[in-house]
């Protein structure tokens, strides 16, 4: 599973990244979490409000910092 | 109710004398702090529930290929309900122009979204009353509509960074949350926002209370009264760097108005604080070339200055 955290480097994006890493560790699933900060890659997904979470190439949500529990439900 | 609580705390519990400078300053501080936080918590929550129905992706679809005038008005209105954070300004801008939202319409949105925001409105309503808050919304929308129309007429598309036009923009699925998710979102949003702004609000109200209690009345009338022609432009120039502290600036401005600052100057100052900011300019320079960025700031600053003079003349 590949998880991408989209964000241009703001504080909220960092929080979402941390939540995601913790959620993956808690769930025990084998997933790679990467940060995507360049604009063309973010735009490729059609995301207009950051931070956003992309799981296996599909936008799970955008424009919010989801809680660890919420992210675990998406994995 | 609130007044009694503030009176009880300052005069009965702490034993300060009503009418004394320290007593009045503290009473003012307690009253305003409690009132503002009650308003902030309830209204931000309601606004967040409404906002969760208007993700930017939906706003973009509503504005795509709209003509000028109608598009500008719609964009300014949608700016109120669409959540906007200056850190998302770049993807938002690219998403808009790529999907065929005209440049001028995009700017109407970019002006209105940060300026007509709920925190500024609540602070205005709580401290100045609903009439001033309504005037602020009305003129804020007008500034956004006019600035967007002017930028549209200037045909400045070539001053958008070239890569923007070549960008491949994907189509994200539009997910509208259910009611339960909306409430969750609103709770998170309200808590997050309060956590971010509370120190500014407390410091702002504290400084306001100090001015209220210790600065002589009419102290500012000489410098910032309606007779001083330079007050409005100076207020606008001072407002631009103060962006992130909008929540803290309004209580201070409220106290300054009591000491003789004219209402038009107050409105212009607050619009400059919320609509224009240096960090936003830095972020937008990623998508706008200098002439367009300067035109954008220039037009909005001029429009706000006119608003200031206008209200100094009629209020």
UniProtKB/TrEMBL annotation, chain A:
InterPro entries (UniProt xref): Thioredoxin-like_fold (IPR012336), Thioredoxin-like_sf (IPR036249), THIRX-like_proc (IPR005243)
Domain Thioredoxin-like fold intervals: 1-75
Keywords attached to this entry: Disulfide bond, Redox-active center
SUPFAM superfamilies: Thioredoxin-like
Annotated disulfide bonds: 10-13
Signal peptide range: none
Taxonomy, superkingdom: Bacteria
Active-site residues (renumbered): 10, 13
PANTHER family, per the entry: THIOREDOXIN
Protein name per the record: Thioredoxin family protein
Organism for this UniProt entry: Geomonas terrae
Lineage: Bacteria, Pseudomonadati, Thermodesulfobacteriota, Desulfuromonadia, Geobacterales
